[in-house]
Amino acid sequence: MTLSSRPSPADQVSDLLDTIKPLLVSFIRQADVSASTLDSVPPVTTWHNGADDNGDDSLPDPLVPGRPLVESHPPDELTKLMAPTLDLPSDGLGKDGLVGVVREVLKYSVNTWDQGFMDKLYSSTDALGTRKAYTVWKRAKDVKRQRKTPETEEMQPLMRIWQIGVAAELILAVLNTNVHVYQVSPALTLIEKTVTRRLADLFNLGPSAGGISQPGGSASNASSLVIARNTLYPQTKTSGINGTRYVLFTSEHGHYSLEKAAQMFGFGSDAVIPVPVDSVGRMIPGELDRVVRQAKERGEIPLYVNATAGTTVLGSYDPFDEIADVCDRHGMWMHIDGSWGGCVVFNKELSRDRLKGAGRAHSIAVTPHKMLGVPVTSSFLLVKDLKWAWESMTLPAGYLFHNDPSSEIYDLADLTPQCGRRGDPLKLFLSWSYHGTAGLSSLVRLSFSRASLLLDLVRSSPLLSLASPDPLPCLQVCFYFAPQGLLANEETNTRRTKEIVGRLVGRGFMVDYAPGPRGYFLRVVIHGNKEEETVRRLVRAVEQLGEEVVREEKVQS
């Protein structure tokens, strides 16, 4: 075969995408049989081929039965089921074999496009919008004359966010470049600088602020600790901590990533001092001041305070103004882990009280792939003065970095431990460009509206007991199954919670559980792409399964 007769890279990519696309579209369509309609949909028996009855694969058909949210197996069992696929071959499988591999991957993966996915802090991908809106759309004789309901209008921003996100991922794969130096990624570099600067503006971090993309919230928190140490105590950049006892502070409900970072960077996990929280999970500033003073009396050096905007379990926002006062008093770095709740900043009304004083922080972590529904991974570390990041991270690598420290920084890997860097900011940039700040604000407001609906349903149920703060600080709702409002002992509550969570998968729902004051409770994360009926059916399913578990307990006793 001559060079001129070989398929071009463009043709090869087009052919492969044409082969894989039906599998991906089919996978997404399975979510059309969402948790909000399982009562009336027959069990799944076939893998839908991705086309409607007329062979048209351009329109979603929510009436075609789909796969379960997840085909669940224990790790050892799934390893056996996937053994042929996991056995990497000596000779390549080619395109036909690749299709089989992709089918297996999709078959045994959680379908996060499904309405019933309410397990983790990132939201389910639901580009197709509401079932009701698209049933109307599918059945319209003339698509141009499709009816628009209020719910359709309400869902428009989220219906497109995921479409944009999928496109952004494809664009990044096609570009296949490293955003470490400007020379090889000029457009993506400017996009990252623009996005981080705008995010810093939303948090009122000041004129010198900026940021850097990170591979997740934990990485953002870890990088902030390095910048804090090297900025407040510059000698540590070259000499290390050298036996000095620096200590770090975080709330009792803070994320575990700070403890991991302390282990990685030589502080040790014992250097992380927990600060008591109040009845709704917020750090108590007076207690922070107390433990800081105690550390000083022991001869330790208070270095860093990790405040939280949206704790993992209860969703609480710490009192940032008061914490900043303590940090100023003792010369400590104030970081805000806003990985979960930071994106509330897009809505002025909801962020006014929650983020009061956040602009006084030295650094903030924010992760749009959670609250904003941008595809994983999308996370940023914002710094009040971007030069702090450069001075803390830069090393003499003249073969790669050509930054002039007196001017703007464009070789972005000089601001972070990473050298290999993906252009993930493009995903938020495209969504932000399409919808504008107002559109993202509407998405945040809709998400809080849906979470408040679940709160109301739990509060009014005679079979459930609310464990979340009321009103809700963020988008997760925590509650116990408690017949007649009476909680059992910790062991019984924990057993019932785990049983209910496990059985919910069979009803088309994935939720989580977490430890609480009376044993483990259910923790449900709600985003704006959840239909009201999905939320109502979830509550009914929990009530029914809870009663089922209690009946079984009585029989066994």
Outline the structure in words.
The chain is of the alpha/beta class. It has helices at residues 9-30, 75-81, 83-86, 94-107, 131-139, 150-175, 186-202, 217-232, 236-239, 257-264, 285-297, 320-330, 348-354, 368-371, 386-393, 425-460, 490-504, 532-556, and strands at residues 210-214, 246-251, 272-275, 301-308, 333-338, 363-366, 379-383, 464-466, 476-481, 512-516, 519-525. Helix content is 44%, strand content 11%. Mean pLDDT is 86; it is low at 40-66 and 125-155. It has three domains: 3-152, no CATH class; 178-422, Aspartate Aminotransferase, domain 2, CATH 3.40.640.10; 444-556, Aspartate Aminotransferase, domain 1, CATH 3.90.1150. The protein is built from 18 helices and eleven strands.
Blueprint of the fold:
Elements: H1 9-30, H2 75-81, H3 83-86, H4 94-107, H5 131-139, H6 150-175, H7 186-202, E1 210-214, H8 217-232, H9 236-239, E2 246-251, H10 257-264, E3 272-275, H11 285-297, E4 301-308, H12 320-330, E5 333-338, H13 348-354, E6 363-366, H14 368-371, E7 379-383, H15 386-393, H16 425-460, E8 464-466, E9 476-481, H17 490-504, E10 512-516, E11 519-525, H18 532-556
Parallel strand pairs: 2-3, 2-4, 4-5, 5-6
Antiparallel strand pairs: 1-7, 6-7, 8-9, 9-11, 10-11
Helix pairs in contact: 1-4, 6-16, 7-16, 8-10, 8-15, 11-12, 16-18, 17-18
